[in-house]
Amino acid sequence: xxxxxxxxxxxxxxxxxxxxxxxxxxxxxxxxxxxxxxxxxxxxxxxxxxxxxxxxxxxxxxxxxxxxxxxxxxxxxxxxxxxxxxxxxxxxxxxxxxxxxxxxxxxxxxxxxxxxxxxxxxxxxxxxxxxxxxxxxxxxxxxxxxxxxxxxxxxxxxxxxxxxxxxxxxxxxxxxxxxxxxxxxxxxxxxxxxxxxxxxxxxxxxxxxxxxxxxxxxxxxxxxxxxxxxxxxxxxxxxxxxxxxxxxxxxxxxxxxxxxxxxxxxxxxxxxxxxxxxxxxxxxxxxxxxxxxxxxxxxxxxxxxxxxxxxxxxxxxxxxxxxxx
Length: 325
Ligand code: UDP
Ligand code: MG
What we know:
- 49% of the residues lie in helices and 16% in strands.
- By secondary structure, it is α/β, with parallel strands linked by helices.
- The protein has an eight-stranded mixed beta sheet, sandwiched between helices.
- Strand 2, helix 2 (57-67) and strand 3 (72-77) form a beta-alpha-beta unit.
- Helix 5 runs parallel beside helix 8.
- It binds uridine-5'-diphosphate (UDP) and magnesium ion.
- InterPro entries: Glyco_trans_2-like (IPR001173), Glycosyltransferase_2 (IPR050256), Nucleotide-diphossugar_trans (IPR029044).
């Protein structure tokens, strides 16, 4: 390769003090290998985004930057903004500095050796390279089940995502520039990137166990994430309401005919229970439908406000970039 291009990695970190040094060490080795193989430029960097951690994550990032300012940069967000926002903060910060960018979790669950293949695929002309898990053997049954149901449910509900792909992916500078035009507040990157388009491919890797620390995605957060994904990307729930409404109307017409025939036939013991049942049923359905509409109204509310999606408190970088301003 005559002109290796610049690779930036964006690594969101929330309370990752147990694992961060190891992640940095492994990334450093990987970068050195890629640089000596002539696959990436010497100007390539790793950017850690501290997402309002309550532990020593930020001081470790500062330490890493001080020890190797050529390789490690850091972004400190003013408060915890959530995984997706932290990733976006990193991407938008590096989009003019890099040629390609890989996002990866800090916990080393994503296989670092897959980076080689991603970079190769980039040189083959792919603008997006999705890291896809080939196996989930190390996940607990519960995590595997909930995560796989998540992808299936998303698809059924009309939000198209790449199956078993989380946020381990390579994007070219061009894609990042297009991503910057997506102004939505409810971020769901793995739904947004396929919408951008361009030539893309998948690389497969085995997902490891979290090296240290614990998952920041308990079931409650994962459910919220799924609901956010569906309501941000699909109006299928709204269409389901219409379908439900039509089915209910047909059913009630049939019930009406049945009641009418029963009345003519003279066997009309209209009971209290059937009245109560229908009141409860209709009441429940109405509440359910209102709830779904409420989800969308809530989103419109958030979008209309157009609040900044993250606030960067500090950007550690090496001197040469400072004269850009
Ligand atoms: N993370 C973040 N902000 C948050 C929660 C998580 O930046 O509010 C980061 C976290 O440090 C990790 C990545 O997002 O690098 C994925 O989180 P985690 O590994 O806990 O999720 P899991 O892999 O268990 O789904
Ligand atoms: Mg993880």
